Amino acid sequence: QVQLVESGGGLVQPGGSLRLSCAVSGSIFRFYRMGWYRQAPGKQRELIAHIYSSGNTDYADSVKGRFTISRDIAKNTVYLQMNSLKPEDTAIYYCNFYQMGSDYWGRGTQVTVSS
To answer: Cα–chain-centroid distance for residue 42?
Structure first.
């Protein structure tokens, strides 16, 4: 089993920055994928970014150049640095961990971008 705990959400003005963290605990194997997703009210959950055990990353077009996913292997933590935030970035952000055919999710953290 794998457990995920997100932190770092909050209220920020347009153009501001936030950093989300996701601490992963449990049985982590050699090959995995970690990611961030978000879900805005009335919309489907969408992918923001992935980081693979290889270190490779990929991003949704809507956040390229503004958001950066990274990880601290020693701390089993994945981060999402969000810059130049826009009101349309407002959503609940979820951490995801995938390995051996199983998906694990955090409970989510609210990000609100508003003046």
So the answer is: 20
